[in-house]
Design goal:
The protein is of the alpha/beta class and 315 residues long. The chain is built from 13 helices and 10 strands. It has 2 domains: 211 residues, Rossmann fold; 91 residues, 3-Layer(aba) Sandwich (Rossmann fold). A 6-stranded mixed beta sheet has the order 1-2-10-7-8-9, sandwiched between helices. Strands 5-4-3-6 form a 4-stranded parallel beta sheet, with helices on both faces. Belongs to the serine/threonine dehydratase family.
């Protein structure tokens, strides 16, 4: 169970190891949407993504005995870097199972933090089998990318900072985050629930990996009808843990197409002069697509990361 105190303790625990990331606004974008948008820039976080928060909160709670054999996880990129970074911070070994199709820039970054990368086929079964092999071989402690209360509580600190820094005078009407496995969305929803109960939380999801919206409606974990999206960080399905939190505390999930994601990504690059990855652009794409839902409102958007392969830009 994740309580308000769980999130506050997580924030205290990871604070020495993370950046309190800036919040940016843009007048042109505000005029275009007809709302006041506040972008929480986790692309400026350690490792270039919000995942550093959850990874650190989990690893920093391991005992010396648990740390002795290292840590392991499976990830297509940003969680991989988070666990590799966290392991380096506490002086232990990281064994990261990554699909062979993961962006080379992310694999290189994981190795740069001193972790071992074990490549596998790009399926969840292959990823889980790879982690199991690592555990049997090394005794490493597993840190799941999202199905872990310690990870969710760490991810919740991003929205907590956003509300502390820009939601005190006038609370946010709504905060949006992207949804893949649901760790960030769950944490964001819990932060809003505890620290700003009047603030709604919504999600953006790619049409090419639209499992969360189906699960949200049915109440059971569903698989996407097909997987084909530029948002490589959002291809995972929810877990029963994240689905339960999302159904209780999230008001809606909005889907967007790849062209809409690319358009939103490009607009942020051009107007805000910052680097974001495709998965990061998904909630802003949802706001652009459904601007009428946000007219006149104060809107927070978690910009999740900036680990983009500059050799493969979609524009």
């Amino acid at each position: 169970m994740i309580f308000q105190s769980t999130i506050e303790e997580a924030h205290d625990r990871i604070r020495p190891h993370i950046h309190r990331t800036p919040v940016l606004t843009n007048q042109t974008i505000n005029q275009r949407i007809g709302a006041a948008l506040y972008f929480k820039c986790e692309n400026f976080q350690k490792i270039g993504a919000f995942k550093a928060r959850g990874g650190l909160n989990a690893v920093l709670q391991l005992s010396p005995d648990e740390l002795a054999n290292g840590v392991t996880t499976h990830s297509s990129g940003n969680h991989a870097q988070a666990i590799a970074y966290a392991a380096r911070q506490v002086g232990t070994k990281a064994y990261i199972v990554m699909p062979r199709t993961a962006p080379q820039v992310k694999k290189d970054a994981v190795r740069g933090y001193g972790a071992d990368v074990i490549e596998c086929e790009p399926t969840l079964d292959a990823r889980e089998a790879g982690v199991q092999e690592v555990i049997e071989r090394t005794g490493a402690a597993m840190i799941h990318p999202f199905d872990d209360d310690r990870v969710i509580a760490g991810q919740a600190t991003s929205a907590k900072e956003l509300m502390e820094d820009y939601g005190q005078d006038k609370p946010f009407d709504v905060i949006l985050a992207p949804v893949g496995g649901g760790g960030l969305l769950s944490g964001t929803a819990l932060s809003a629930h505890y620290f700003s109960p009047q603030t709604r939380v919504m999600a953006g999801e790619p049409e090419g990996a639209a499992d969360a919206i189906l699960s949200f409606r049915s109440g059971v974990v569903e698989k996407a009808p097909y997987i084909n999206t530029i948002a490589d960080g959002l291809m995972t399905t929810l877990s029963p843990r994240t689905l339960a939190i999302i159904r209780q505390h999230v008001s809606d999930i909005l889907t967007v197409s790849d062209p809409e994601i690319i358009g939103a990504m490009r607009l942020i690059w051009e107007r805000m002069k910052i680097v974001i990855e495709p998965s990061c652009a998904v909630p802003f794409a949802a706001v652009m697509k459904h601007a009428d839902q946000f007219t006149g409102q104060k809107v927070g958007i978690i910009l999740t990361g900036g680990n983009v392969d500059l050799g493969k830009l979609p524009f």
